[in-house]
Amino acid sequence: MSDYKIIVENVSAGYNSNIVLRNINLKIPQRKITAIMGPSGSGKSTFLRILNRLHELTPGAWVKGRVILDGIDIYDRKVNPTLIRKKIGMVFQKPNPFPMMSIYDNVAIGLKLNGIKDKKTLDEIVRRSLEIVGLWDEVKGDLHRPGTMLSGGQQQRLCIARALAVNPEVILMDEPTSSLDPISSMTIESLVKKLAEDRTIVIVTHNVQQAIRLADYVAFFYLGELIEHGPAVEVFTNPKHELTLKFVKGAIG
């Protein structure tokens, strides 16, 4: 088995005539946390959305190159993007529980869409997913109530539980704590570390201190190019590129 879960080869992407990413090559290790960093407008979120084929859902979006998941190019014409999105889950910047659904249905929706109808099976997976994110004891008496009734931090954990329910091998996170208070942010960070024990995590963050706390590996993007990547300790303590050093020190961003 390869040490790398995802291998990105010569990927460029954009919207219509606008180029957002240029010739990105990156290997993402198995069961590790890789932080994608860089100033606003550097292409971080676009890169993340390319990894599970969400990018192509935006009108005018295009991508060139290869993204290899477990030896298979996910952009091969024979590959079903729905199956890729089942293997590679996504947690967005702002908590986005489905507003017309209960807490229970927010977690169960992906399972139902994948054909699971048995109530006992659904109950077990919903409970397990909520337990993993530390929500079960907080909401077990309110499963019928709307997910939007929860606090911001609870809503984000609910969204992570929703992603976990279909048992993804990779979880992508786009600045998952940027809209949360410090206590909720620390709860999410602890959860991310726990999830990385048996899953591959790719997290976009603008917060250098958060990346220092979380990341095993770091990739630094600037103006659509991958400037530097490697073990987090090396990137933060001995960056090879001047732009990386400036970003780490807060001089750009």
CATH architecture of the domain at 4-87: 3-Layer(aba) Sandwich
CATH topology of the domain at 4-87: Rossmann fold
State the major sheet.
6 strands, mixed
SSE ordering: EEEHEEHEHHHHEHEHEEHH
> What top-tier CATH class of the domain at 4-87 fits best?
Alpha Beta
Structural class: alpha/beta
CATH superfamily of the domain at 4-87: P-loop containing nucleotide triphosphate hydrolases
How far apart lie the N and C ends?
38 Å
Biggest sheet, strands in spatial order? Answer: 6-7-8-3-9-10
Total number of strands: 10
* Coarse morphology: globular
Fraction in beta strands: 25-35%
> Rounded to an integer, what's the Rg over CA atoms?
18 Å
- Number of alpha- plus pi-helical segments: 10
Helix content: 25-40%
Mean pLDDT: 94
Low-confidence stretches: none
Structure description:
This protein is of the alpha/beta class. Among the domains are: 4-87, Rossmann fold (3-Layer(aba) Sandwich); 103-140. Helix content is 36%, strand content 26%. The chain has ten helices and ten strands. The strands form two sheets. The protein has a six-stranded mixed β-sheet with strand order 6-7-8-3-9-10, with helices on both faces. Strands 2-1-4-5 form a four-stranded antiparallel β-sheet, with helices on one face. Helix 3 (103-113) packs across helix 4 (119-132) and helix 4 crosses helix 6. The mean pLDDT is 94.
